């Protein structure tokens, strides 16, 4: 694969589909300082996956991701090529090796929005941790990182285990306790999101965990966490939260 030519093709295809009005609306919604072409995520995904079907090697994959991630327009990163880079990396995550967790971390550290971070957290970092459980030690470090998006990544990287029915309950509990006092909305939301997903498979665990922390949990977190719990448990937990 000619990586630079492929990256240029992706950008050219995105520009053809670009909608200036959509670009302005998306910039406003995401509070973004990036350049926006104005292409929907499904459309970006379709263009990105046309590259994936060419079955790049691991080295080509990483080079293509880097090329798309670093595209600029008038000195500003291009939102859609960054989304394409994440989609491609996630789709070919099976090619990645343990050391490539550092690639996911670098991209997260260069991210300024959930729109890039969340897919990297679950589909790349989380997928690697499932395949190589010893990488969970990196999440233990990330959960206390000064950068908010790295902390969010640590929590959301637990989602693949939750969804597959093999949750890392020890880490989930420890990370939850580490993050429960967070003031950042996106951290509070991430904790609630993971608890909500776990409640679909193990409502009793989620109920007990939240029950012991109604005096500390945030409103954002508890509202997400109890969403799929039995009505009586949901009502009891919310009552305890409101009366604390």
Low-confidence stretches: none
Give the end-to-end Cα distance, rounded to a whole number of Å: 60 Å
Would you count the extended β strands for me?
2
- The run of helices and strands is HHHHEEHHHHHHHHHHH
Structural class: mainly alpha
- Globally, the shape reads globular
Radius of gyration: 19 Å
**Sequence of strands across the biggest β-sheet:** 1-2
Strand content: under 5%
Major β-sheet profile: 2 strands, antiparallel
Considering DSSP H and I runs of 4 or more, what fraction of the residues is helical? 55-70%
Helix count equals 15
Give the mean pLDDT: 96
Summarize the structure.
By secondary structure, the chain is mainly alpha-helical. Helix content is 68%, strand content 2%.
């Amino acid at each position: 694969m000619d990586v630079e030519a492929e990256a240029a093709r992706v950008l050219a295809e995105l520009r053809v589909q670009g909608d200036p009005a959509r670009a302005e609306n998306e910039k406003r919604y995401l509070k973004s300082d990036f350049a926006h072409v104005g292409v929907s995520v499904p459309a970006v995904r379709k263009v990105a996956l046309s590259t994936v079907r060419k079955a790049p090697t691991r080295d080509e994959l990483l080079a293509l991701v880097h090329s798309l991630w670093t595209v600029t327009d008038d000195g500003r990163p291009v939102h859609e090529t960054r989304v394409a880079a994440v989609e491609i990396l996630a789709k070919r995550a099976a090619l990645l090796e343990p050391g490539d967790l550092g690639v996911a971390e670098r991209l997260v550290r260069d991210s300024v929005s959930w729109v890039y971070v969340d897919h990297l957290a679950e589909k790349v970092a989380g997928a690697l941790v499932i395949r190589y459980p010893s990488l969970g030690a990196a999440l233990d470090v990330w959960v206390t990182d000064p950068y908010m998006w790295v902390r969010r990544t640590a929590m959301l990287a637990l989602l693949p285990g939750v969804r597959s029915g093999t949750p890392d309950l020890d880490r989930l509990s420890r990370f939850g306790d580490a993050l429960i006092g967070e003031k950042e909305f996106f951290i509070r939301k991430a904790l609630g999101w993971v608890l909500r997903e776990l409640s679909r498979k193990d409502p009793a665990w989620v109920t007990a965990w939240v029950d012991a922390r109604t005096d500390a949990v945030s409103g954002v977190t508890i509202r997400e966490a109890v969403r799929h719990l039995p009505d009586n448990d949901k009502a009891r937990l919310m009552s305890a939260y409101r009366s604390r």
